């Protein structure tokens, strides 16, 4: 392992925005009070049982974690919803969405992509095509042949790619504040892995907390369990450089593999749910000053994307940030269930 891989110490997607994470937060607990957490989240409880699918990629034997939640007793309608997490997230943050869907009779499959959550963290070439193919293997293993695929943030980019690759499987598509509604290559200067490593060295505990707060219009203490705390504890793991490297590689995947130019090819019936206060940009800290007020304008991006996807329905949520299924939980679930009818 070269010196870069051995010393990369903080996920690139987080660090890219640390310079614009501004709001002050209460003083965090001292680092020595935190207990290390493994990079595959052993010791971190998920809301439902976790299974693993063995996958071999580039000669490496890996495991892909997923939850397979059955419908509530007596409610099975024979339909399945696939939930895809974002870049700085993992399957557990779908807890309330899973419960609502299961209660209404849906089977719910929630993978942790390779490189994320409880899944393996390999040094491989990451691509949305690969992640989509891995996800299809999970569904095949479970005997699921048709799904509504719901993607949040980076999961929206993956959900789009999945729908394009497997139109017979993804009959409906839900995009929740997806990143990639614009081509970041045209906005954000390219950053090498070496340069990203240098940026990571300046990351602080307070910066991590501030960045996570910026996902929301109104921060709630309950969000801590999904964001800042796991990230801070994983940094204390002896295996943390491996997680940091996979984070850097998946940042490059997002930057280099846009899906926004293919929205007009989506065949699945589509719902877009857009928090109107979301201003997420991948690599925002490196945006030229003249573009700061133009990039990441989710109200405009949502309307433009809805116009590109044939027949798409757009739901705009005022005063909501990047994660509607947490910040506007009841409204998000209501819109999702209505779309699934």
UniProtKB/TrEMBL annotation:
<dbReference type="InterPro" id="IPR029058">
    <property type="entry name" value="AB_hydrolase_fold"/>
</dbReference>
<keyword id="KW-0378">Hydrolase</keyword>
<dbReference type="GO" id="GO:0016020">
    <property type="term" value="C:membrane"/>
</dbReference>
<dbReference type="GO" id="GO:0047372">
    <property type="term" value="F:monoacylglycerol lipase activity"/>
</dbReference>
<feature type="signal peptide">
    <location>
        <begin position="1"/>
        <end position="29"/>
    </location>
</feature>
<dbReference type="GO" id="GO:0046464">
    <property type="term" value="P:acylglycerol catabolic process"/>
</dbReference>
<dbReference type="Pfam" id="PF00561">
    <property type="entry name" value="Abhydrolase_1"/>
</dbReference>
<dbReference type="InterPro" id="IPR000073">
    <property type="entry name" value="AB_hydrolase_1"/>
</dbReference>
<keyword id="KW-0732">Signal</keyword>
<feature type="domain" description="AB hydrolase-1">
    <location>
        <begin position="80"/>
        <end position="327"/>
    </location>
</feature>
<dbReference type="InterPro" id="IPR000639">
    <property type="entry name" value="Epox_hydrolase-like"/>
</dbReference>
<dbReference type="InterPro" id="IPR050266">
    <property type="entry name" value="AB_hydrolase_sf"/>
</dbReference>
<protein>
    <submittedName>
        <fullName>Hydrolase</fullName>
    </submittedName>
</protein>
């Amino acid at each position: 392992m070269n010196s870069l891989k051995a010393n990369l110490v903080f996920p690139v997607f987080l660090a890219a925005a640390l310079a614009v994470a501004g709001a002050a937060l209460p003083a965090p607990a001292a680092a020595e009070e935190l207990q290390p957490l493994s990079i595959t989240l052993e010791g971190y409880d998920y809301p439902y049982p976790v299974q693993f699918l063995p996958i071999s990629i580039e000669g490496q034997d890996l495991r892909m974690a997923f939850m397979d939640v059955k419908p509530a007793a007596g409610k099975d309608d024979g339909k399945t919803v696939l939930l895809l997490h974002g870049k700085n997230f993992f399957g557990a943050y779908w807890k309330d969405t899973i419960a609502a869907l299961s209660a209404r009779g849906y089977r719910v499959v929630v993978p942790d992509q390779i490189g994320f959550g409880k899944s393996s963290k390999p040094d491989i070439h990451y691509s949305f095509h690969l992640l989509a193919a891995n996800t299809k293997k999970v569904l095949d293993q479970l005997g699921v042949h048709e799904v509504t695929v719901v993607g949040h943030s980076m999961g929206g980019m993956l959900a789009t790619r999945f729908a394009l690759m497997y139109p017979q499987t993804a009959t409906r598509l839900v995009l929740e504040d997806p990143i990639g509604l614009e081509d970041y290559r045209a906005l954000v200067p390219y950053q090498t892995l070496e340069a990203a490593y240098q940026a990571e060295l300046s990351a602080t505990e307070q910066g991590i907390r501030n960045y996570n707060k910026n996902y929301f219009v109104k921060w709630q203490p309950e969000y801590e369990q999904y964001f800042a705390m796991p990230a801070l504890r994983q940094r204390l793991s002896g295996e943390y450089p491996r997680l940091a490297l996979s984070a850097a590689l998946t940042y490059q995947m997002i930057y280099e593999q846009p899906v926004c130019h293919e929205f007009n090819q989506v065949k699945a019936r589509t719902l877009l749910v857009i928090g109107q206060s979301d201003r997420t940009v991948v690599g925002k800290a490196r945006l030229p000053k003249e573009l700061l007020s133009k990039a990441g304008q989710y109200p405009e991006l949502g309307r433009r994307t809805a116009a590109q996807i044939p027949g798409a329905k757009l739901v705009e949520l005022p005063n909501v940030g990047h994660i509607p299924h947490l910040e506007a939980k009841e409204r998000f679930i209501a819109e999702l269930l209505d779309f699934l009818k």
